[in-house]
Specification:
The protein is of the alpha+beta class and 95 residues long. The chain has helices at residues 16-35, 47-73, and strands spanning 7-14, 80-86. Helix 1 crosses helix 2.
């Protein structure tokens, strides 16, 4: 038998799932800027494919770092989610 627990308050935190599209767009923009002056590629597996894979990884890494710093320093800029926290009851208190 479960009884309803009393809500003690709410915690606001960044809503990371909603920021996924922004992280994708930021990564693509970084990649576009970093590869804008590359010569056109011929089709087929070449060394430039490995270079492009490395640039994609680097762009994702850079975008993630920027988001991490911005969320750490300017959290209100990003979508927020509100989650309740519950008051402890008799079962939660260790004996």
């Amino acid at each position: 038998m479960s009884r309803e627990r009393e809500i003690g308050g709410f915690i606001q935190s960044p809503d990371w799932p909603k920021m996924g599209p922004s992280l994708l767009i930021a990564s693509c923009l970084i990649l576009a800027v970093r590869t804008a002056k590359w010569p056109p590629r011929a089709s087929g597996l070449t060394s430039s494919d490995r270079d492009l894979d490395a640039e994609v990884d680097n762009a994702i890494h850079l975008a993630g770092r920027v988001f991490g710093v911005l969320v750490g320093r300017h959290e209100p800029l990003f979508p927020q989610t509100t989650k309740p926290w519950f008051m402890p009851d008799e079962e939660d208190i260790p004996k």
